[in-house]
Amino acid sequence: MKIWEGVPKVSGIYDSRRNISKMEKTDNVTGKKDVVSISNQAKDIQTAMKALKDIPDIRKDRVEELTQKLETGAYKVTEEDIADKILKSIIDGKA
Fold first, then answer.
1. In this protein, which residues make up the domain named Anti-sigma-28 factor FlgM C-terminal (predicted)?
2. Exposure string (b/e) for 19-39, b if CB count within 10 Å is 16 or more?
3. Cα 62 from chain centroid?
């Protein structure tokens, strides 16, 4: 089977030659330098993060105080306190 209807149109696209003219010279183009701008909010966050890094993860004074209370038997926690903390953490969604 021969289909001649669309062939001349397709081949006509490849046969047509386009005239390409030379590019015109443009004026000198100067590049812009990159500029970085940090917002005041970002600067505040950066300052806060630096301050947090300086704070120790473990409060040695508090650990020593609790260790001393445990050793002397002065550290008392009631069952009600434990149950209250467990229920509160479940309600708050922390557990």
1. 34-88
2. eeeeeeeeeeeeeeeeeeeee
3. 34
Nearest to 41 by CA among 30, 33, 49, 52: 49
3-state SS of 33-55 is CCCCCCCHHHHHHHHHHHHHHHC
- Per-residue pLDDT at 1: 56
Cα–Cα distance, 92 to 81 (Å, whole number): 16
- pTM beyond 0.85: no
Q: Are 87 and 81 in contact (CB under 8 A)?
A: no
Mean pLDDT of the chain: 81
Question: What's the mean pLDDT in 7-27?
Answer: 62
pLDDT at 10 over 80: no
Nearest to 75 by CA among 83, 85, 84, 67: 67
What does each C-alpha distance from 94 to 21, 44, 51, 86, 89 come to in angstroms?
72, 29, 26, 10, 5
Which pLDDT belongs to residue 64? 93
